[in-house]
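Technical appendix A lists one of the benchmark inputs used to test multi-chain prediction within the project. The record comprises four sequence entries:
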Amino acid sequence: MIKVLVVDDEPQIARALRINLAAHGYEVGTAADGAQALRAAAAIVPDLVVLDLGLPDMDGTEVIAGLRGWTKAPILVLSGRAASAEKIAALDAGADDYVTKPFDIGELLARVRAATRRSGPGADSPVTEIGGATVDLAAREVHRGGEEVRLTPTEWQLLEVLLRNPGKLVGQRELLHRVWGPNYDRETNYLRQYMAQLRKKLEEDPARPVHLLTEPGMGYRFRP
Amino acid sequence: MIKVLVVDDEPQIARALRINLAAHGYEVGTAADGAQALRAAAAIVPDLVVLDLGLPDMDGTEVIAGLRGWTKAPILVLSGRAASAEKIAALDAGADDYVTKPFDIGELLARVRAATRRSGPGADSPVTEIGGATVDLAAREVHRGGEEVRLTPTEWQLLEVLLRNPGKLVGQRELLHRVWGPNYDRETNYLRQYMAQLRKKLEEDPARPVHLLTEPGMGYRFRP
DNA sequence: GTCACCTTTGACGATTTCTTGACGGCCCCC
DNA sequence: GGGGGCCGTCAAGAAATCGTCAAAGGTGAC
């Protein structure tokens, strides 16, 4: 089932959206502010996000940036502000669509269909091979030799950032920011700790990694 | 270059769109009715279609259906009609976005960016050739003769400054400032040390460099 | 309250990288 | 021809980083 995360601080609108989306066969989660939204997104891994820009705790573009750091799920922005500058800022921050309130629920549903249509069948083979293990980012599943391997939430976030940049070097500061938040800059011991755990769970020979590589002094790299 | 097909029967609007899109680096083709649009699309295979629904010869949804039969390129619909039923019909026919006239050109461009962003990022990062080696600055990767070459962080920084100024002479003081910091002015031995390492790793004949050149008394230069 | 799981933290050799010093060759100027 | 400055090269000590182990908080389930 397609999972949708609805982020809105007005309970009426959030409720109306949830009911309408659920009635059309979507699995719906809700969040009332930006911090909740980022936590909920990391937990349920939605296929689409409906985001109200007028959140009480943080700017809408920050939420978009926080989501875009690790997911490519379409983001459909709702906003009461119709100014073009607002729309441009949100779209360039990474949003996929922008609808001004008040909106027609039928039109919104059509835009949701359009957004999910292109990301649904377009995402070919979401499984990645690492050594003898297969990683399914969408389903949050790892298998190795027929057995299922369990990863903790932090391990998932770290692995996801690396896998979404195949072949590319990801700097340690960038990894810390994306996984632990903007206030973490020098806690490289976290990276060492969790990279070791990932290698132990995924690599054939954890002492001699082939896919999860260290670039000394710079960062880490996933080689397909 | 990203190819955009503009379909509109009003010459003024078509012309305005063409000029604006071309000014932002797109390659633009135009068509004035539905039949022309389908022919032009088959000929130039656009990466995105901007489609006015009010065409003289056929209904807009037919054009959408005709395109969707063979291409997944994003379709951005323009229309003077703001009724929700129209929007829903167009979106469900296969359109990706729907903008009502009159529209803000900046917003339209932002929506074009959003649409091309999600379908485009298959392009790999630009590589620079040095002798027999290929340098990928974005991925932080160097290959030479099929083998991978490892650079240390300082080597990367130095090489990046030179490669970002192709053909230009970079003074030794500027190099020292950019790589080691503002407090380093006369440690030219650092430059000698690391330039030698870079040449050994990148140049065909490190003793007779062709791309990483010394300008005695002044600085260094990268010649493509 | 207890238990299990996850995260955070500290510490230690092993390895890589950076820094530093020294030497000879080349070119230009005197 | 001699001298000084600059460059390329080599080598070795100093410093930083990495992988690993172990254990102390935190949190939610039962």
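Residues 152-154, 187, 189-190, 193-194, 216-217 of chain A lie near DNA strand C (CB under 10 Å from a C1'). Helices of chain A lie at 11-23, 34-44, 60-68, 84-93, 105-119, 153-163, 172-180, 188-202. Comparable benchmark entries are summarised in Table A2.
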